Every structure is written in C-alpha cells, then in structure tokens.
Amino acid sequence: MSSRLRHPLVAVAAVVLLSSPWVAISFLSSPEALGSVPTVAVSGLSVLGASFLLAWGAETAEKDVPRAFAIAVLAVLAVAPEYAVDAFYAWQAGQGEAGAADLAVANMTGANRILIGLGWSGIALFSIYRAATSGDTAIERREGFLADAVVLDRSIATEIAFLSMATVWAFFVPLSGGIDILDMLVLVGIYVAYIGIIIRGDPHGQEVHVGVPAYLQATPARVRIPAVFALFGYSGFLIFTAVEPFAHGLENIGIQYGIPEFFMIQWVAPLASESPELIVTAYLVNKARTTAAFNALISSKLNQWTLLIGTLGVVFSISQGAYGVLEFSFKQSAEIWLTAAQSFFALAILITFRITMREAVSLLVLFVSQVAIEFLMIDRLTVPFTTVDLLLAYTALYLVVGGIMFATQTEHVRRVGRLAKANAVGADRVSESD
Asked: Domain 2-425 sits in which CATH superfamily?
C-alpha cells in the first residue's frame, strides 16, 4: 500500500483533486457568489496546483524538445494571467473607459518590476539558502560580505542579448505618445526571432529527473507526448480561469482595508498573476535545478517585455474597431522608463553569468524602497517631491549604477555578444567558456 502511495501519478491525482473545487465552481457557478475570501482561497489552491503541473510538463517535455524551448513555453503559460489582466484593461481603453489605458500600463510595469525586484532577487537568495542542504552545484561559495553567488549557464547569452534589445527599445516607447504599430512590430519581432533561434537546438537529456517527470519520460512517446499536452492544457485552463478572480479577490480585500484601487492594480494584482511563475521557479530550486529556474525567470521577463507590451496596442485597436495608439499619461511614461532602467541594471548584473547575494539584495532593496515610498506618499506622507519625481529619481539611480557596471565590465559584454552570435548561427546553444 505504501509503495502505491509513493507512485508518481499519486502526486498528479492529488493536484487534480486540489483544483477540482475551482473547476466545479467555474462550470456550475459564478466565483463572485463565493465572496472575496473564499474566492481567494479556492482559486489560490488551483494556482498552486497549476504551478506544479506546469513544472512537471516542462521537465517532461525536455525529453523531446530543446530545454530552452520547453522553458520558454513554461514561461509563456506561467505569465499568461498577466496577459489576460492587461488585455482586459487595454480592451476597456478601446471601449472609451477613462483611465483604462493608464491601468493597463501600470499593471504591465508593475508585473515586470515584480518579476525582477522580487522574482530574480528572491529566487537567487532562496537558491543560495537551499544549497546548504540540496548540494546545488550552481551555487558558488565565496569569501566576503554577501559574496556567495548563483552561477548561471552561459547559454542564457541569447536571452540576455534579446532582453537588451527590448530594454533599449522600451526607453523610446513613451516618446511616440503611446504604444503603436511600430512598437508591436519591433517587440513582437524580437520575441519571434528569439523563439526561432532556441527551437533549433537539440533536446537536452542530461538532466536527471525524479518523480513525475522521470516517470513520464520513461514512457513511450505515444504516452509521454499526450501527457505533456494534458499537463500544459489543464494547468493553462486553471491559470486562465483562476488567476484573474484570485487577483480581483485580493484587490477587493485590500480596498476593504483602505488600500487605493490604483495601487492594488499596479502591485497586488500583478503579484497574484506572477505567482505561478514564482512557485514554479521555487519548485525547480528545491530540486537543485537553479539554472533551469533562472532560465525560466529570464525567459518570462523577455516575453513580458516584448509580447505583453507589443500586443496591448493590438487589443486596443480591435476593441475600438479601428487602428489606434494606446495613449497614456506622463506618469505612466515615467513608469515605463523606470521599468526599463531596472531591466538595464539587472542586465548589468547578468552579463557576468552570476548573481551574488549582494546584487540580489540590491535588486530587492531598490524595488521595495521605491514601492514603499510611493505607497506612503499615496497615504498622505508629506514630502517635497511628486510621485513622478520619485520615479525619475529611481530611473536615474538604476541607469547610473548600471552604466558604471557596464563600463567596468566591457569584456563580459563582448563575451555575451560572442556567445549570443554563436547560438544564433549554430544549431546548438553554446554554454561552455570561450
């Protein structure tokens, strides 16, 4: 009996059972009828279950497709809720809803900054903490204050190169007055080119898996491939149906406690919609797969920073029935510049193919301090500057520090360029030292 309980498929059955109440509610009733707290509880359990299904599906898929491509698919599905929320506000803007365009941009920039400020920093710190017991070889112990580091695979040079392109373009997005057709063509084109490169690689079978992925990888292709599609399909259904009610439920709870709606939409809703991605990467770290976890996080940042921005204008135009530019306020322009500057600083860290504890803490502190000050200002903190001044000041700080890091690490920049070029022209992704 105990051996049966240890069978990998028992874990799959347990996750399906965990999510079944939400499935029943989705088909038989309306989530709003439950009330905010029950909705958050039931949908939150489904989001948790979907995260595990996504991770199992992606790990199993590595048997048949390039690992980078499997991780990219996982990243797209994991951040799909963010696409849905932003598309909702862009659609409302197309219908003439006042302020909806600002909400779309606020939600998008909040999600991107959370992914780096909390996601990259938190997973780096968690990886270093877990390495004490997991034996993760991706962690480098070094002398000095907060000097231990996560060592990243050099194959991510491709992601770094494409994320750099998207970051540079993002600085120019506000200058045209909004998100237009050119932004869509450039940003979506960047992501399509990226997928075109990584899909050419060979499947990576060197990772040793356990549990559900190991069991499914040992099955014949006629069983394994449909199982991967089933895992992706069911987890995708849960994410698309559960995360938006989960986010709105959290928003309603926050508003009940006096937190402004705009602040909830920019920070709490994106945090909820990013939760599948953060859970998946924490799961991978727990299995001593820190490299795969960071590849997923970086791929998520890339698709959010390209597809998410690029498609907002498309949704807006479809909603209003004619081509149009998704216009937003100057404050949201400052939000985009700050988000691009944070990406610039994060890229200055990534080009060394390692993230130290000190750098992770810097990402975390800069992110949390800006959000905290902005929240206090909303809560009537008297200061001699405006919110826009605050955003521009942090933008300048990120750019100055990141610029100094790039200027002192030119050899690393050249190495990333060489590796990315090799990945682009060759059939395999290059990861070894050059």
From this structure: NCX, central ion-binding region (1.20.1420.30)
Print the SS3 string covering the chain. CHHHHCCHHHHHHHHHHHHHHHHHHHHHCCHHHHCHHHHHHHHHHHHHHHHHHHHHHHHHHCCCCCHHHHHHHHHHHHCHHHHHHHHHHHHHHHCCCCCHHHHHHHHHHHHHHHHHHHHHHHHHHHHHHHHHHHCCCCEECCCCCCCCEEECCHHHHHHHHHHHHHHHHHCCHHHHCEECHHHHHHHHHHHHHHHHHHCCCCCCCCCCCCHHHHHHHCCCHHHHHHHHHHHHHHHHHHHHHHHHHHHHHHHHHHHHCCCCHHHHHHHHHHHHHHHHHHHHHHHHHHCCCHHHHHHHHHHHHHHHHHHHHHHHHHHHHHHHCCCCCEECCHHHHHHHHHHHHHHHHHHHHHCCCEEEHHHHHHHHHHHHHHHHHHHHHHCCCCCCCCHHHHHHHHHHHHHHHHHHHHHCCHHHHHHHHHHHHHHHHCCCCCCCCC
Task: Say yes or no to pLDDT of 2 above 70.
Answer: no
pTM as predicted: 0.81
Please state the domain extents for the chain.
Answer: 2-425
pLDDT at 434: 47
| Residue 336 binned pLDDT confidence (cut-offs 50, 70, 90) | very high
The pLDDT of residue 258: 75
Decide if pLDDT at 427 tops 60.
Answer: no
